[in-house]
Amino acid sequence: MEIRRADPADSAEVSALIALTMMTSNINDYPGELLRQATDCLTPECITQRLSWMHSYVVCDGGEIVGCGSIGPYWGKENESSLFSIFVRPDFQGNGAGRLIMETLERDEFFLRAERIEIPASITALGFYQRFGYDFKGGVRELDEEHHYKLEKFR
Prior knowledge:
By secondary structure, the protein is of the alpha+beta class. The protein has a single domain (2-154), classed as Aminopeptidase (3-Layer(aba) Sandwich), CATH 3.40.630.30. The protein is 32% helix and 28% strand. The chain has six helices and seven strands, in the order βαααβββααβαββ. A seven-stranded mixed sheet has the order 1-2-3-4-5-7-6, sandwiched between helices. A hairpin with a 6-residue loop joins β3 (64-73) and β4. α1 (11-25) crosses α3. The longest helix is centred in the first third of the chain and has 15 residues, at 11-25. The mean pLDDT is 95.
């Protein structure tokens, strides 16, 4: 597996990867209709637009995208950043692709300049992010209005 910066030509494949992963891996934690609404918002056009303000990466295996993740500024702040859209294709989960994404994001300039990094974590991915040192923002262990846990890590 290799990791590289994503570019607009990857947007359709990344969008399909996110939809597949959500409808396969997250289906046990969320209703299908909620997942369909979320995937409807992550169209190739949306992914391309995000590339203009986030640093996005893709993990490839044999030229095929099997994972993705992004980091960007937290509401435009210079000293805070957020992680977004970290997904690994279901048949590659547990094979190190997620770790490769996280390690790359945590070497990115948006991470290195930040004092605090936040991530909206799904129920499904909570334990994964906790293994990287992310904890509940302000100690709040409840889902927000978007059905995510707000996690954070201080540097």
